[in-house]
């Protein structure tokens, strides 16, 4: 009985450890990858992935929650259109070795947007509060 309880406990811990979504994401190798992954995740409604590629602070979290709420308010067809949209990169500017500005739109919304991607502690992430 004790062996089966211990085995169940070990299996439970393995399942919990494997279910952590952040463990499945690969850190971006550069600013462009971080920006693309973040934008693509937002378009596809994968906000845990978007959060992984975003600088973690309170303002960024609030902004991402607002984007998620707007995404969830769309009807099924509207969400599907976003999932199928492609990213159109207009321009990439590197003002220094730890900042990248990614000017983009998508095939559904052609209005120009800017993503600010920064490198801190050797990790590239989108600073959503500086983006528009």
Radius of gyration: 18 Å
Which structural class do the helices and strands define?
Answer: alpha+beta
Distance between the ends? 58 Å
Mean of residue pLDDT?
88
CATH class identity: Alpha Beta
Looking at the structure, the CATH topology is Nuclear Transport Factor 2, Chain: A
Enumerate how many helices there are, as a single number. Answer: 5
Taking pLDDT < 50 over at least 5 consecutive residues as the criterion, the unreliable ranges are none
What sequence of helices (H) and strands (E) makes up the elements? HHHHHEEEE
The backbone outline, from C-alpha atoms, is: globular
CATH-defined architecture: Roll
- For the secondary structure, the number of strands is 4
Number of structural units classed as domains? 1
Major sheet: 4 strands, antiparallel
Query: For the largest beta sheet, what order do the strands appear in spatially?
Result: 1-2-3-4
Question: Helix coverage percent of residues?
Answer: 40-55%
How large a portion of the residues is in β-strands, by DSSP E?
15-25%
């Amino acid at each position: 009985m004790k062996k089966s309880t211990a085995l169940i406990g070990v299996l439970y811990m393995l399942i919990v450890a494997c279910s952590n979504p952040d463990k499945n994401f690969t850190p971006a190798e550069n600013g462009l990858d971080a920006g693309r992954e973040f934008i693509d995740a937002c378009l596809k409604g994968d906000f845990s992935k978007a959060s992984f590629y975003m600088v973690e602070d309170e303002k960024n979290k609030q902004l991402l929650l607002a984007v998620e709420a707007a995404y969830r308010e769309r009807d099924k067809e509207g969400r599907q259109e976003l999932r199928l949209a492609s990213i159109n990169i207009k321009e990439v500017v590197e003002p220094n070795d730890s900042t990248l500005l990614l000017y983009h739109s998508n095939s559904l919304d052609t209005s120009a947007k800017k993503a600010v991607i920064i490198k801190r502690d050797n990790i590239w992430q989108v600073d959503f509060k500086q983006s528009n």
